[in-house]
Write a structure and sequence with these properties.
Shape: globular
Radius of gyration: 25 Å
CATH superfamily of the largest domain: Alkaline Phosphatase, subunit A
CATH architecture of the largest domain: 3-Layer(aba) Sandwich
Distance between the termini: 106 Å
Order of helices and strands: HHEHEEHHEEEEEEHEHEHEEEHHEEEEHH
CATH topology of the largest domain: Alkaline Phosphatase, subunit A
CATH class of the largest domain: Alpha Beta
Number of strands: 18
Largest sheet: 10 strands, mixed
Strand order of the largest sheet: 9-8-5-4-10-1-11-12-2-13
Helix content: 25-40%
């Protein structure tokens, strides 16, 4: 009887702590698994020493858009996972989708992959260079089963660029940067439209049931976990589409946000609420199927939020697509029973490139000396509270983006051309050159009206010719006091560091669009269009023709 009473108490407690989820799953929640997830016993068998790695990447989530950063949007799952794990409060990513994803999967800065300008467009014959070893490839070497669910956005013009050719055993998701959450269609420009949902290497027409992508991806994750043996290590990369535009969410998630007048903010809040519930369902599935006790869950946004699309980075400056802190400082945490300092905050410097060496080392893998990484193993920094091996971050050098008309070598003391968009962090100092992008501070009251309102935004005026900024980010994380005129020697030191990095850069890969990419030429589907065999056949034919001409000439 006592045992029964204790079990009943535990069951009641679990229902109370996850009550909103249980209610949601009864009404078609964000990816419900078959059967009751609560109170299930984990699968039998002692776990292997190699941990299960679950990497969850949100899309366009603003720095303020999580409960523990003071948001009005409720994120109970993220708050609980972060509180029981380690919050990363000095954590950096890149300002846009492709750059962050490429650096996560290779452990290299953009200047070392050729992807330092903008993103990979759907119509470009471009992808993550094939000579780069990827994180899933390294994990497969040491026995991991590797699966990706969600948004790829690392190029697909050739079959060799597809996720299943880059180290993943399976892939279910989208190839492009955005699309409709229900129909999975995407128009890159008028008349250039196609379907974008894949299972491995083929269009997933069978899954086109009008299911909201956040829920659909979560259901796929649960299926993978249910069918895999938890005694064998798994790497699960879940790259949710949410909360990237278009702003769409199932109606019931608006329930708590009717009071938000700004329609974009209201929709964004509903999307984030659905995402939070989905992540709760993923963690419940990890427990149900016997993975949790030997798992490492990493949560990260890929870049800052976009205020015009409902995201908030307050009190940071700037937005997605900029090198101000609002574009590159991200929500991030690690949750794992394997952490030594649970319930702590890590204020050491961590960058998205660090996950590559950190996770390979955790998985008992080897990093070859010929792979020149820009990331560091930061597991002891996160788990034990030790100092970070990282002292600097090259945020980027983009030699194509030279929109700062007044930039010059003279403004860069003859060390650097300040017309070039670049940003670097060394210890406490951060330097920006060129045109860093939209630089307003957007406070919460900016979302108080029905439409986008910039009257509440805080702006700073500077002379029209300014192309260099210096901040002490530790003392001034909101970038309010430019110190470039006060500390010219520091500016020169950081410019020299930029110059040193630039000497190691590879050429930029940013080809013009290819008309063969039009989905109309590919059965209405976005997908690989470049045929290597055809190119070889053409070259072989031309060689054969040339040989025939030569022999005829010799006979003559």
């Amino acid at each position: 009887r006592m045992v029964a009473a204790v079990l009943a108490g535990l069951s009641l407690l679990s229902l109370l702590t996850c009550g909103y989820l249980a209610w949601g799953s009864r009404r078609g929640g964000a990816g419900e698994a078959p059967g009751n997830l609560l109170g299930e016993e984990p699968a039998a068998g002692a776990p292997r020493s190699q941990p299960h790695i679950i990497f969850i990447l949100a899309d366009d989530q603003g720095f303020r858009d999580v409960g523990y950063h003071g948001s009005e949007i409720r994120t109970p799952t993220l708050d609980k996972l972060a509180a029981e794990g380690v919050k990363l409060e000095n954590y950096y990513v890149q300002p846009m989708c492709t750059p962050s994803r490429s650096q996560l999967i290779t452990g290299k800065y953009q200047i070392h992959t050729g992807l330092q300008h903008s993103i990979i467009r759907p119509t470009q014959p471009n992808c993550l260079p094939l000579d780069n070893v990827t994180l899933p490839q390294k994990l497969k070497e040491v026995g991991y089963s590797t699966h990706m669910v969600g948004k790829w956005h690392l190029g697909f013009y050739r079959r060799e660029c597809m996720p299943t050719q880059r180290g993943f055993d399976s892939f279910f998701g989208s190839l492009l940067g955005s699309g409709d959450y229900y129909t999975h269609f995407k128009c890159d420009s008028p008349g250039i439209c196609g379907y974008d949902l894949y299972e491995n290497n083929n269009a997933a027409w069978d899954h086109d049931n009008g299911i909201y992508s956040t829920q659909m991806y979560t259901q796929k994750v649960q299926q993978i976990l249910a069918s895999h043996n938890p005694r064998k290590p798994i790497f699960l990369y879940i790259a949710y589409q949410a909360v990237h535009s278009p702003l769409q969410a199932p109606g019931r998630y608006f329930e708590h946000y009717r009071s938000i007048n700004n329609i974009n903010r209201r929709r964004y809040a509903a999307m984030l609420a659905c995402l939070d519930e989905a992540i709760n369902n993923v963690t419940l599935a990890l427990r149900k199927y016997g993975y949790y006790e030997n798992s490492v869950i990493i949560y990260s946004s890929d870049n800052g939020g976009q205020p015009m699309a409902g995201g908030s980075n307050w009190p940071l400056r700037g937005s997605k697509g900029t090198y101000w802190e609002g574009g590159i400082r991200a929500v991030g945490f690690v949750h794992s029973p394997l952490l030594k300092n649970k319930g702590s905050v890590c204020k050491e410097l961590v960058h998205i490139t660090d996950w590559f060496p950190t996770l390979i080392t955790l998985a008992e893998g080897q990093i070859n000396e010929d792979i020149q990484l820009d990331g560091y193993d930061v597991w002891e920094t996160i788990s034990e509270g030790r100092r970070s091996p990282r002292v600097d971050i090259l945020h980027n050098i983009d030699p194509i983006y030279t929109k700062a008309k007044n930039g010059s070598w003279a403004a860069g003391y003859g060390i650097w051309n300040t017309a070039i968009q670049s940003a670097i962090r060394v210890n406490h100092w951060k330097l920006l050159t060129g045109n860093p992008g939209y630089s307003d501070w957007v406070p919460p009251q900016a979302f108080s009206n029905a439409g986008p309102n910039r009257w509440h935004n805080e702006r700073v005026s500077w002379s029209a010719g300014k192309t260099v900024w210096l901040f002490n980010i530790t003392a001034d994380p909101y970038e309010r006091v430019d110190l470039s005129a006060r500390h010219p020697e520091v500016v020169k030191q950081l410019l020299r560091r930029l110059s040193q990095f630039n000497k190691t850069a590879v050429p930029v890969r940013y080809p013009p669009k290819d008309p063969r990419s039009n989905p109309k030429l590919n059965g209405g589907v976005w997908g690989p269009w470049f045929k290597e065999d055809e190119k070889k056949k053409k070259s072989d034919k031309s060689k054969g023709t040339n040989k025939q001409k030569k022999t005829k000439m010799k006979k003559k």
